[in-house]
Fold this sequence. Notes:
With 114 residues, the protein is mostly helical. The protein is 55% helix and 0% strand. The radius of gyration is 13 Å and the shape is globular.
Amino acid sequence: MGETVCGSNLKPMADWVKEKGESCRPCVIPVTMEWYHSELKERHEDALAAQVEAAQNSEDIEVVGRVLDEIKAKASPELRDRLLEFDCATQQLKPEDLQEPPSGDASPLDSPAS
């Protein structure tokens, strides 16, 4: 990790969650976990999706960060790249970005249909 996937200095989630920053780490991690879970379920990676589900019960954000990093380590290169995109989006989130979009269910990572 640490490579730039989307033009940022991407950090392992276990390190990022420990930092003080502009965004509230415990506030944005549930969003990231939902992105991970949805992507993993869509790709039929049920064992990895179960790890996300188990981590959702943890009140320790550092445990959650480690779990997300462990999932990436086990993922195929294509899936890992997608999960790194989620990490990048999470690490760039600002508090105002967490407002519900007008449509109600659009992900900020969804690209418009071409």
